[in-house]
Design brief:
Elements: E1 10-13, H1 19-30, E2 34-39, E3 53-56, H2 62-76, E4 81-84, H3 99-127, E5 130-135, H4 148-168, E6 173-180, H5 206-215, H6 224-235, E7 243-246, H7 248-267, H8 269-273
Parallel strand pairs: 1-2, 1-4, 2-3, 4-5, 5-6, 6-7
Helix pairs in contact: 1-6, 2-3, 3-4
Length: about 280
């Protein structure tokens, strides 16, 4: 049981042991919202109780997904915001990629997120309201050397989220894609996975990227507390966007790619239009 007032919104957050998930939970508990905080190891979130309902949840385990949503519904009767935060990084050149690691990455970052979304949608449709917050990355918008498989998982999240937003808007449900740049979370530290057999031919691209990411772990410019505040404010805004870049690096990088993409597409306009049947 939690001490939150019954008229406060209900947030269900995955991956609360560290990073954005933990900071979101702490922020929301502090302002009196009703929070269901989840983690694969519930001992790592025990300190969030009794302010939150704490639950064991591995998003890759269908029975745990169902049990978590059932527990939240039993406790609060509704879910106002689902935050799909559970996920991790895998830095590998495409050639270095290990099949088992690639599949595991997609199981958590994509299929686990989709499973959680499917589990809460019937409840939100019945309510006629709700918000789904999918934690992506600037790497879901920009591809980087040595990050291809992580990029692919987050690009998948972005495509799913775009389609989902159009599907659920008639039910009063909104979707927000959060795209952080480098933040001082555990993403580049203990949680990060890399290839067991690196290929030195990629020393100046993929390997250099891995070393850079590991090297700045703990000194990234992004503040997870401010990120949590920005996410909550955006979810609660009157006209929230589909995408929310977080941090100057993400904003500047995504802006630059958008402009470069516009120019790239404009340059092949005649070729693109020429692929249609001639107009009669």
């Amino acid at each position: 049981m939690t001490n939150a007032a019954p008229d406060k919104p209900v947030w269900l957050i995955t991956g609360c042991s560290t990073g954005f998930g933990r900071e979101l939970a702490r922020l929301l508990i502090g302002r009196g919202d009703r929070v269901a905080a989840t983690a694969r190891d519930p001992e790592k979130i025990a300190d969030l109780a009794p302010g939150a309902l704490t639950l064991k949840l591995d998003v890759n385990a269908p029975q745990e997904v169902a049990a978590a949503v059932e527990a939240v519904t039993r406790e609060f009767g509704r879910v106002d915001v689902l935050v799909n935060n559970a996920g991790y990084g895998y830095l590998s050149a495409v050639e270095e990629g290990e099949d088992e690691e690639i599949r595991a990455l997609f199981e958590t970052n994509v299929f686990g997120l989709a499973a959680m979304t499917r589990a809460v949608l019937p409840l939100m449709r019945a309510q006629g309201s709700g918000a789904i917050v999918n934690i992506s990355s600037q790497g879901g918008f920009i591809g980087f050397p040595g990050v291809g498989y992580y990029n692919a998982s987050k690009f998948a999240v972005e495509g799913l989220s775009e389609a989902l937003a159009k599907e659920v808007a008639p039910f009063g449900i909104r979707v927000l894609i959060v795209e952080p740049g480098p933040f001082r979370t555990d993403w580049a530290g203990r949680s990060l996975k890399t290839p067991k057999r690196p290929i030195e031919a990629y020393a100046e691209s993929a390997v250099a990227r891995r070393n850079a990411v590991r090297g700045y772990s703990g000194s990234q410019p992004g503040d997870p507390v401010r990120a949590a505040e920005a996410i909550v404010a955006t979810v609660e805004s009157a006209d929230p966007p589909l995408r929310l870049p977080l941090g100057a690096i993400a904003f500047e990088g995504m802006t630059a790619k958008t402009e470069a993409l516009r120019k790239e597409i404009a340059a092949v306009e005649s070729v693109a239009r020429g692929a249609d049947y001639p107009k009669t």
